[in-house]
Every structure is written in structure tokens, then in C-alpha cells.
Amino acid sequence: MKQNENKVVVALDVSNKNKAAQLFDELGEDAAALKIGLEMFIRFGPEIVQNAVARGAKIMLDLKLHDIPNTVQKAVANVSLLGAELLTIHTTGGMKMMKAARRGIEEAEKNYGVKGPKLLGVTVLTSISEEAMKNELGVIKSVEEQVVSLALLAKEAGLDGVVASPKEIKSIRNACGDDFLIVTPGIRPAGSSVDDQKRVCTPEQAVADGADYLVIGRPILQADNPVEKLKEINKSIIH
Ligand code: C5P
Predict the structure, then answer these.
(1) Pocket-testing residue among 215, 221, 233, ligand 1, by greatest number of atoms within 8 A of Cβ
(2) Are 127 and 186 in contact (CB under 8 A)?
(3) What residues line ligand 1, using a CB cutoff of 6 Å?
(4) What is 43-83 written as a DSSP string?
(5) Tens-digit pLDDT string for the chain (239 aa)
(6) Is the pTM of this model over 0.90?
(7) Which atom of ligand 1 is nearest to 35's Cα?
(8) Nearest C-alpha to atom 14 of ligand 1 is from which residue?
């Protein structure tokens, strides 16, 4: 991980376009990126990303793509035109799908002269329990083993990193080495409300465990002064 670099990705879970635009301007400078998920993307369309990028914000586009390789390749090529810094896809789409996503970026870079996003793989959603993994999906590994094995697959396929829960940061770092990005949600500064997150970790701990970027939403967005809150978190983790 690089020192002296912003590490917080602010999850922009807002349903109002003007509020989003205000946050692009206010938080853009002190955040590693602002995360736009399916909810906002589907409601406001790709223009919301272009608008944020035009205002100077870096965007993590959390679309969690998962389809046949050809479809993902074309979708990723199109997404590459929007200017996001980071894009998520599902690792469970398999090696061929992940490699196709990488080709989609190369295709857009070659044909349109754009700079495509870094690709992050989602491993096992934290909403899936070990029991559901076994009984519904037929996976007999533990969640941790499955996460690490999908992270290794993502690395082999040429992805830039993965999104993982704070619990798995250390084992992914050990297995995948230092040059692989680990992005983690479920972060709560000491003293913050836990909200609906079950297992939380402080920003300091997540960084000590080896995370590169921390996805943080409500503790920043619901603070009296979101910009100050973000700066305060930055101060605790950027050395
Ligand atoms: O408000 P909060 O800090 O909990 O927001 C965290 C963000 O990270 C939300 O956008 C949430 O959907 C996302 N996320 C998560 N846990 C996961 C995966 C994504 O909280 N396992």
C-alpha cells in the first residue's frame, strides 16, 4: 500500500441527485473515491458517473457484474468510457469471465483512447452465511477458504484486487501478496454507531491488517460535518 494516500472510499448511498452532486464537490478531494452502487446507477443512469468525474471526483462503480464472458467484456468496455477509477465484478463468474472483463478494458483503451477502471472482484457476499453457501450453493469450503480461493483466482485472471470483509483481510493479504488491492466495507471509527453492520472493524485496524481502501458510508454521510469527519478519519490512518 502506498503511504500518504487517501484510503477512504465514501459510499454515496443517497437517492437524491442534487445531494449526490453536492457530495461529489464536498468530499471528492479528501476521498480515495466515491462509491456509486446499483441503486443510484439504475435510478440516474451512467450520466451520474460522468457528472461526478466532470466535477473532479474519483468513482468506484459498484455494479458487481456477473454474466457470460462475452456480455461482461462488452459491458466492461462500455463502462470504461464513463471514467470511473474502480469497477466491481463477481469472481464467481469464473476465470474466463474475469479475463473477458480485463479484455473489455483493453478494448476500450485501444479503441477509444480512454483509461479504463481498475477491476475489483467480489468474492463471497457477506449476506451469504456458511450454511447458505453449503446448503443452497453446494460449496463445502468454509467462507474464509472460499474467499481466499476466489481471491487467488481473481489475481490469476489479472484483476487488480478484491472487495472483502475486514475479517478476511489478513488471509487474502498473505495469500495474494502486497500488490493486490483489498477494499473493505464494514468500517466504523471508534464511538460511531454500528448501524446494521454485524462485524465491524475500526479504520486503524483495517489498515493495520493490510486493507488498501476502506468503504465508509453512514459514519461520514450522517455526521454533522461530513467533510470534517472524513478528514478526521484520514488523519487517523494516513501516516
Ligand atoms: O454506511 P456503511 O458504512 O455501512 O456503508 C457501507 C457500504 O458498503 C454500503 O454501500 C454497503 O452496501 C457496502 N457493503 C457493505 N458490506 C458488504 C459489501 C458492501 O457494507 N459486505
Answers:
(1) 215
(2) no
(3) 11, 13, 37, 126, 165, 185-186, 195, 197, 215-218
(4) HH-THHHHHHHHTT--EEEEEEE-S-HHHHHHHHHHHGGGT
(5) 455 689 999 999 898 999 999 999 999 999 999 999 999 999 999 999 999 999 999 999 999 999 999 999 999 999 999 999 999 999 999 999 999 999 999 999 999 999 999 999 999 998 888 899 999 999 999 999 999 999 999 999 999 999 999 999 999 999 999 999 999 999 999 988 888 877 789 999 999 999 999 999 999 999 999 999 999 999 999 87
(6) yes
(7) 10
(8) 185
CATH of domain 8-237: 3.20.20.70
Residue whose entry in the numeric block shows the C-alpha cell 478494458: 105
65 Cα–ligand 1 center, Å? 17
By annotation, the residues acting in catalysis are: 64
Under a CB-based contact definition with an 8 Å cutoff, are residues 154 and 93 in contact? no
